[in-house]
């Protein structure tokens, strides 16, 4: 799963972080699509995209079927932990290449347990024939968005999944759609972990403002680099 | 066991594991403190001296505690550790079931009285206890090793004497723990200022042990260590003069 861009949208719909990871070379796993053909958005377009996403997110939570809203308590929103998404695996990486620690997180990964999905009624995944977009929402309303170059195989029905409320992810186990979404959630939660260290523990950062931290940049880059 | 026993902790290190605090909470608290002090300050120098003052008080306390610990014989410390373990174990047992463990408590009592006897006979160990550090290099080694281990769990990355200047020494930390999430590249002055709390700790420690000095923090990044901080210690002239009078001819 090639990640092309990471966006962070604050709780009032403003874009506070954007980073594109596309390189001019042809993606080896998918040689037909060259990365240069996409992502020619300027910063203004990105701001519009972010606020549009924010609105669509709010609208989609309004149009969640009543039956689903009522049966909320029956749905399991736990997302399983996938080992070493975006970090070096100690079993396959030579000792001297291992990074010693992950910020204030102990051990060789940011977290090691299944976690709760706070995004219960909003937009979770957007699938097109060009890219797939995953959204991870935190409890406080911050949204982490990943744009992936991987495209769902035809037949999975990208349209009907657009505003699903997380129910499909739990019920359809093992499908490629499900797996991609879970890995994306794992990855985005790690971006959130990095955010909690390098943004929230920076005394010179003001809340809700754009993030300009080279340390945060480096850590996000390293997460994406380790993602196969 | 009560939730917090921080006020009745022994001054001696005790228990199986070292006392640890969450790094996440520590750094969050640190950034809040910096934000608050920064807002209250008129200038960056004012901010540095405020942060320095906070660290100074910590340095004085650390001096007392670590010198006390270093002067207690190892045998007593290991006994205190054992005692701490048995006491904490038995405490949990007592809260669970207070009637059926009379043998445990009585054996604990005897361990405790043994320990107190031993501790009272500490007087005979006084000649073997650690002496106060009188030389610059000794006290700096103590900071580089013991103080850093106590505060951060590892010794500092390096301790160097400045070339051609008798009064200057440097303590280097490749990954400063308290300021590791603050970017040095974005604003060097801000980043250096955030490290003045540790400057204050060093200054307080040295001044109270009879080595008046000024300490400043400098950001000197390398490729592997983008956060590398150098603490520059400038002793007052009198310290160096005293050292030369006392030790140069020996």
Would you mind describing this structure in some detail?
The complex is a heterodimer of chains A (228) and B (250). By secondary structure, chain A is α+β, with helices and mostly antiparallel strands. Chain A has a single domain (3-226), classed as 2-Layer Sandwich (Beta-Lactamase). Chain A is 29% helix and 14% strand. Chain A has helices spanning 43-62, 66-70, 167-171, 176-198, 214-226, and strands at 3-9, 15-20, 78-79, 115-116, 125-127, 132-137, 143-148. In chain A, strands 2-1-7-6-5 form a five-stranded antiparallel beta sheet. In chain A, strands 3-4 form a two-stranded antiparallel ribbon. In chain A, a hairpin with a 5-residue loop joins β6 and β7. In chain A, α4 (176-198) runs antiparallel to α5 (214-226). The longest helix of chain A has 23 residues, at 176-198. Chain B is globular and about 60 Å long. Chain B folds into two domains: 22-71 and 131-247, Muramoyl-pentapeptide Carboxypeptidase, domain 2 (2-Layer Sandwich); 74-128. Chain B has helices spanning 23-40, 44-71, 74-96, 102-120, 136-152, 188-194, 196-208, 237-247; strands at residues 158-161, 168-173, 213-219, 229-235. With 250 residues, chain B is α+β, with helices and mostly antiparallel strands. In chain B, strands 1-2-4-3 form a four-stranded antiparallel beta sheet. In chain B, α1 (23-40) packs across α2, α2 (44-71) crosses α7 and α3 (74-96) runs antiparallel to α4 (102-120). Classes of the chains: A alpha+beta (228), B alpha+beta (250). The interface between A and B is medium-sized, with 15 and 21 residues.
